[in-house]
Amino acid sequence: MNVNPHEPVAVRHTANPSRTRMAGLLLAAGAASWAAGTVIVGDKIQEGIQTLDTITGMLFVVGLFAFVWTVLATRGVGDGWARIIPVGLLVLLPGAFLVNALSFGYATYDDLPLPLMILDACWPLSQLGMLVLGIAIAVRGHYQDALRWLPLLAGMWFPVTVVAQIFGGPTVSVYVSAAWLLGMHAHLGVRLALPRGTEPGHHA
Fold first, then answer.
1. Exposure check for the chain: N or C terminus, fewer CB within 10 A?
2. Residue 39 belongs to a domain
3. Collapsed DSSP state (helix, strand, coil) of residue 64
4. What pLDDT does residue 45 have?
5. What's the structural domain count of the chain?
6. Structural domain containing residue 22
7. What's the pTM?
8. Are 98 and 119 in contact (CB under 8 A)?
C-alpha cells in the first residue's frame, strides 16, 4: 500500500490481494474461454445462437464483472463522479449475462421475445462502457505501468471487432476478436493474478 502523505488519498486504496488475484483469474479464464469458443464456432454464429459461444460468452461476462468490481474497490477511477462508470457497468453486465442465459432454446436472436430483445441492449452498452472505463482509468492514473493502459486497450475490443467485421467480413472478425481477447483481456487478467507486484496502485 502506498503511504506517501503527499500523494492523493485515492492511491492508497487497494483491494484484498487474494480477491484481486481471483478477479484476474476469472478475467483471464473468461476471455480465453470466449476466444476459444468464438474460433471453434466460427462462421456458424451467423446462423443463429450457438451453445458454446453463449456459455463461453457468459464466462467472459463473469470475468468482466470481477474486474469492474476490483476497479470500484480500488478506486481505480477515483472517488468523484467517475465512480458512476463502474457502478453502471455492475448493472449492465448482469443484464448481458442474463440475456445469454435466457437465450437457450431459441434458434436466433430474432426469435427472442421483446423483453429479452430489450435486455440484449445491455451487451453492446456494457462493451461501450468498458471503453469509457478504460479511458477513465488511463486518465486517472491510479494504476501504474501496463495496468494503467491495458483496460483502455481491452475496452477497444468492441469498436475493433466492428471495424474488422466491416472491412474483413465475419471470418476475419472472429480471429481479430479472439486475438484481442487473448492479448488484452486475458493479458490484463494474468497481470492481476500474479502473486506479487501487480496489485492496482503498485508498479507492475
1. N
2. yes
3. helix
4. 81
5. 1
6. 17-193
7. 0.87
8. yes
